Amino acid sequence: MVVTATEFKANFGKYLELIAKEDIFITRNGKTVAKVVNPQVSAVDSLRGMLSGAASDIDTDSLREERLLKYENNM
């Protein structure tokens, strides 16, 4: 969901409830300035649902190792 900063501020309680269901992107002057996410849902869990087939079996440790290797290779 995308909302303006003014709308978010005016209806903060409403958006706190909605965060449980979806991420909220906050805009100011037409530009995204923040993303509010549910802390109970990890990024890995969110992405895992988008992967298909064998890729959905990737665990957190494998993803962490892959990120570290990419980071080390770019240094």
What does this molecule look like?
The protein is of the alpha+beta class. The protein is built from four helices and three strands; from the N terminus they run βααββαα. Strands 1-2-3 form a three-stranded mixed beta sheet.
Task: List key phrases describing it.
75 residues; 45% helix; three-stranded mixed β-sheet; 4 helices; alpha+beta
Strand order of the largest sheet: 1-2-3
Share of helical residues: 40-55%
Structural class: alpha+beta
Radius of gyration: 17 Å
Strand fraction equals 15-25%
* Mean pLDDT over the residues: 79
- Uncertain ranges: none
Order of helices and strands: EHHEEHH
Number of helices: 4
Tally the beta strands. 3
Largest sheet: 3 strands, mixed
- Terminal Cα span: 36 Å
The gross shape turns out to be elongated
Helix/strand layout:
Layout: E1 2-4, H1 5-10, H2 12-18, E2 24-28, E3 31-36, H3 43-48, H4 60-74
Parallel strand pairs: 1-2
Antiparallel strand pairs: 2-3
Can you summarize this structure?
With 75 residues, this protein is α+β, with helices and mostly antiparallel strands.
